[in-house]
Amino acid sequence: MYAHLFQQTGTLVKLILRQERLKFFIWLFTLVVVTLAAAAAYPNVYTDEQSRLGYALTMKNPAMIAMLGPGYALEDYAAVGPILSTDMLIFTVIAVAVMNILFVVRSTRADEEDGQLELIRSLPVGRLSYLSASIITAFITNLLLALLIGFGLYALNIEGIDLAGSLLYGFNLGAMGLLFAVLTALFAQLAETSRGAMMLSFAALITAYLIRAVGDVSNETLSFISPLGWAVRTDVFVGNEWWPVLLSSAVAVVLIVVSLYLNSIRDLDAGFIPARKGREHASPFLQTLFGFTLRLQSVNIAAWGIGVLLLGAAFGAVMGDLETYFANMELLQAFFLAEGPDFSMAEQFIALLMAIMSLFCAIPAAMAVLKLRGEENKNRTEHFYSRAVSRTRLLAVYVLVAVLVSVIMQLLVAFGLWSASVAVMEDAISFETIFNAALVYLPALWIVISLAVFLLGVAPKAVGLVWFYLAYCFIVVYFGGLLDFPQWAKNLSVFELVPQIPLDDLTFKPLVMLTLGSLIITCLGFLGYNRRDITG
Amino acid sequence: MSLVEIKGLTKKFGNFTALNDVNLSMNKGEIFGFIGPNGAGKTTTIRIMLGLLKATKGEVKIFGKDAWKDAVEIHKRVAYVPGEANLWPNLTGGEVIDLFLKMRGGGDRSKREELIKRFDLDPTKKCGTYSKGNRQKIALIAAFSSDADLFLLDEPTTGLDPLMVRVFQECVREVKAAGKSVLLSSHILSEVEKLCDRIAIIREGKIIETGTLSEMRHLTRTNLTIKTKEPVVSLEELKGVHNLHEYDGELSFQVDTEEMDGVIRYLSQFGIVKLESAPPTLEDLFLRYYTRAEQADSRLGGR
Ligand SMILES: Nc1ncnc2c1ncn2[C@@H]1O[C@H](COP(=O)(O)OP(=O)(O)OP(=O)(O)O)[C@@H](O)[C@H]1O
Ligand SMILES: [Mg+2]
User: Fold this and answer.
1) Hey, whose CA ends up nearest to atom 22 of ligand 1?
2) Which of A387, A389, A390, A532 is the mutation pick for testing B, counting most B CBs within 10 A?
3) pLDDT of residue B300 exceeding 50
4) What is the band of B293 on the pLDDT scale with cuts at 50, 70, 90?
């Protein structure tokens, strides 16, 4: 009866797959390789039971639980599987979710915005076909991911990583991916622009992470609201609970029905939030290039700012628990602290957290530059360049906004962490330490910004390489030790060159070098940008 | 001195040659028509004039300055309207117009309000919700309320209704009256015919004709319709006669302009009762250039 609504879905699936195949390949390849490489490394790093127990002790504290999830009972860590899952699962789930969000926004709202959908809808194609095709494509991709990781892990033939556990691990990732794909499809119906859909989806992801973090530390019931809370409760490689996979699949099915329904009742190019009347005149601030550029990105910046502040505060909030936890276990502390007893667990935690949060903050900073490429693609920079605005000037404004974003984000992380930790800790870490630990990463963020400027100027078709670089930096920070990267490979990530406060002393030489480097790379980008064609 | 001077302009995208040795010049106070089939290179030429694209070879001077190097200087006196105005969906039309005026370094407030009225635009709507024609109006209002000396208009009337096209044409005449110059690229040949002083025809990246409309007409045919007392014999064998049709006792045909004299002499023997002549329309010209080039192509085995 409803078959006509879905006509030609199969053809569209093929069309979408063909358009996106390169991206899918890169994502799947990276996810699988990183997972398998890490899994293969664990038995060599944690060779005996004692080292595994040592690992377990470092993990069984509130800060790590907030970051990674509740983990397992101490004695379960005698095997490698639980270590793999504790270390890897949550961040892999987040990466898979990001892949799905980016893909679904592209193949729903973005294609609609660009007018492709209008042409397709004018053909004998069902009204729900495009959305269905997008969801089916996401399903295929996530299934492939689940199978590749599931059987891949098993094929490594590591003791303690059996077939049942490997498959559950893979399907857990796949099911989470599908859930976020479908959630994005739903947001794509509600929001009117691709940017709006993207923002809602990422906000949902961050919220899910925050709820889980707070819930895992303080109140388990809370964690059951968040899909990420389900994902870390499979007890994979030990108890092998399948209910989280089934639950998220079931929720996905419900969301599919809802988004298909919403899609069927809304107009093309419309959302569910009606447009309001606006101003007749531009405010003096909007009339400046800087004000205008900021206005274009304001919602994006605000959203990231709030997310970053909340993440900082959430981690700050667990520091109190961390303190109590270790106060009761002073002996233990002396036993396993790799850095020696000079540093408290809280301080070590801050160093790691800042490295990861800085990478996270590099994303909006790079986006602020790459927005200019997006504007060019939509033929909107010509409005400026056909008027009395030079390329140097417009690019400089975008770079300025990016630098501003980098500073704001780092300040917000530090502020969130500091204000929450002061509230909960007896022996609070000083304001200065936390702010130094955050701000010291600014030169690294500027290198990322300068890389974006460089690509924009010299290889505008390849601006996506910035994201590759950030992914690489993340892998180095997170797995550098585990995967035994050679020093030069680690140094490719500028985040490694920054002194880790409070573990390292604040030395200015690397910071000055990085800042100079970023200036030089930025200049090269400006030169390239002034020489090339503005295409659309 | 000419306002715009293009010499030997060549533009390659990879190994595809979009423009091949283009020469053009525009004088002050002139409305210059720029026509040619799709993909001929009109937009590419204009984008090079704006310094958005870099010429592979050749020289482009506007106000005596280099279009690439002195782009910003030049743009203080240039207004551009693209064929499709891509705007920011969450800004209102009014905000965008203000912004554009500001970017050129100010503009005329009262002119802005007047044009908004004349073009019948609601400036409080968000650009994302405007119709195509209304989006186009924003670009036009921003252009015409600026005090530019040169207007580069690339298919500016796409999407406008006939009433608005009239308003547009008035605006063009007004800026001309104020001594300014306009480059108008368009597919609406009647519009070009009505407005333009001189015309260039471009095809596959080459300028194949430049001149005033009457100069071009001179090279082509005039449409004649006649009625005679006695039936005309063997007219089709006469040199310079084309497309002969008989309809309701009247003959209609085209004559090469340079053969006009001979043809009229010949016809007068048969006692002319009625003679109507019409100059060729730009469309005739265009079609003729176009098909002629096409035939040449097929002979050469071109694409
Ligand atoms: N960035 C680009 N890369 C490659 N080819 C291009 C690029 N821009 C334009 N072209 C090609 O250059 C040729 C001229 O294009 P142009 O847009 O100037 O045509 P046009 O005369 O404006 O046509 P229309 O009447 O359809 O607007 C076309 O064949 C087009 O495909
Ligand atoms: Mg064009």
Assistant:
1) B43
2) A387
3) no
4) low
Ligand 1 pocket mutation pick from B9, B13, B48, B53 by most atoms within 8 angstroms of CB:
B13
- Regarding whether A249 and A335 lie in a shared domain, the answer is no
Chain A residue whose CA is closest to B123: A280
Per residue in B229-263, pLDDT (tens digit) is: 888 888 878 888 888 888 888 888 888 877 888 88
The verdict on residue A277 lying in a domain is no
Residue with tokens 């628990």: A321
Position B29 scores a pLDDT of 92
Residues A300 and A443 in one domain: yes
Domain-located, residue A13: no
For B59, the enclosing helix (H) or strand (E) is: strand B57-62
What local confidence, expressed as pLDDT, does residue A195 receive? Answer: 83
pTM (predicted TM-score): 0.79
Tell me: do A253 and A218 sit in the same domain.
yes
Whether residues A64 and A38 share a domain: the answer is yes
Residue A225 sits in the same domain as residue A309: no
Residues in chain A with CB shorter than 8 Å from the CB of B126 are: 275-276, 278
CB A104 within 8 A of CB A202: no
Residues A258 and A291 in one domain: no
- Of A268, A371, A384, A386, which to mutate for an interface test with B (greatest number of B Cβ within 10 Å)? A386
Mean pLDDT, all residues of chain B: 86
Give contacts of B 80-139 with A, CB under 8 A.
80, 82, 84, 86-92, 94-100, 102-105, 123-126, 128-129
| Cis amide leading into A502 (omega within 30) | yes
Domain count, chain A: 2
Which atom of ligand 1 approaches the CA of B155 most closely? 27
Q: What pLDDT is stored for residue A6 in this prediction? A: 85
CA angle in degrees (0–180, nearest 5) for A480-A482-A483: 70
Give φ, ψ of A304 to 5 degrees.
Answer: -65, -40
Q: Which of A242, A268, A294 is the last residue of a domain?
A: A268
Asked, for residue A434, whether it belongs to a domain, the answer is yes
Given a cut of 50, the residues of chain A with pLDDT beneath it are 331, 334-336, 338-339
Give the strand order in the sheet containing B272-278: B241-247, B250-256, B221-228, B272-278
ipTM of the complex: 0.71
Domain of residue A363, residue span: 282-536
Which residues 242-271 in chain B show a CB within 8 A of chain A?
none
* Listed residues A241, A268, A295: the one ending a domain: A268
Q: Which pLDDT score, from 0 to 100, does residue B218 have?
A: 66
Tell whether A255 and A289 lie within a shared domain: no
What is the pLDDT at residue A326?
67
Task: Retrieve residue B109's tokens.
Answer: 């407030």
Q: Are B20 and B206 in contact, with CB atoms under 8 Å apart?
A: yes
CA distance B92 to chain A (A): 6
- Mean pLDDT over B212-238 rounds to 81
User: pLDDT at position B219, please?
Assistant: 66
Q: Do B54 and A531 make contact, defined as CB atoms within 8 angstroms?
A: yes
How far is it, in rounded angstroms, from Cα B70 to Cα B92? 31
Asked whether residue A264 falls in the same domain as residue A295, the answer is no
> Given pLDDT bands bounded at 50, 70 and 90, which one contains residue B302?
very low
**DSSP codes joined into one string, A45-76:** HS-SHHHHHHHHHHHSSHHHHHHH-----GGG
Confidence of residue B1 (pLDDT cuts 50, 70, 90): low
